[in-house]
């Protein structure tokens, strides 16, 4: 069994400024303090994109300072609000021999794979042939191990029209790669700022609230709206046969 922490969508603005009346920097501080206090035995932390609000170098520098004392290994991902070039100036070692921010972490229970879906200038997610080929190779190399896949943009609808319009495009290309190998046991995504779970072509998935603002559940197609529901991160217990997820509302209850 391994313990994994999933954090998503910090949306850090320029330091010293607020976003939608909230303090994303303060919220992320509270989240990381809570993780450190209650889950210092975590094997891995994944932060699944929209690290910044506008891709500012200063926001990435502030993020690096916050992560400097985190005990567990951290895998950072990029979302549509991020800027790959600016991120690289602060985190040059995060890129593994390529243009994209992707990673494979081998654990006792399988592989944790993070996939880069950012297409600069686009709100929706994209996977080019290069990224699909990278994933194809990593799934082939898994050699029978289960794979737990993280993306910023979900490849599935959550039936909130304003969010489904900006999910991963051409998700059938991703599905073709996953079906070819059949070893992806679970998909974790960010981007939607809501706690959602289900099945996508037989593969279980989940999303979670961001550490800043949330998205309103406007199922009627009324357009995107901000919600001030509480932020959260997830504690995930993984082994080869099960996935257990606990959403943690870190601003409530235990501090």
Write structural notes for this entry.
There is one protein chain. This protein is α/β, with parallel strands linked by helices. The chain has a single domain (2-248), classed as Metallo-dependent phosphatases (Purple Acid Phosphatase, chain A, domain 2), CATH 3.60.21. Helix content is 24%, strand content 25%. The chain has helices spanning 24-38, 57-67, 84-90, 129-141, 161-164, 171-181; strands at residues 2-7, 44-48, 74-77, 103-107, 110-115, 147-151, 184-189, 196-200, 203-207, 214-215, 226-227, 233-238, 243-248. It has a six-stranded mixed β-sheet, with helices on one face. A five-stranded mixed β-sheet has the order 3-2-1-12-13, with no helix packed on it. Strand 4 (103-107) and strand 5 form a beta hairpin. The longest helix is centred in the first third of the chain and has 15 residues, at 24-38. The radius of gyration is 17 Å and the shape is globular. The mean pLDDT is 96.
Query: How many strands?
Result: 13
Mean pLDDT: 96
Main CATH class:
Alpha Beta
Taken in chain order, the helices and strands follow as: EHEHEHEEHEHHEEEEEEE
Share of residues in helices: 10-25%
Largest sheet: 6 strands, mixed
Distance between the termini: 26 Å
What's the domain count? 1
Provide the structure class.
alpha/beta
Residue windows where pLDDT falls under 50 for at least 5 positions: none
Gyration radius, in Å: 17 Å
Proportion of beta-strand residues: 15-25%
Give me the CATH superfamily.
Metallo-dependent phosphatases
Helical run tally: 6
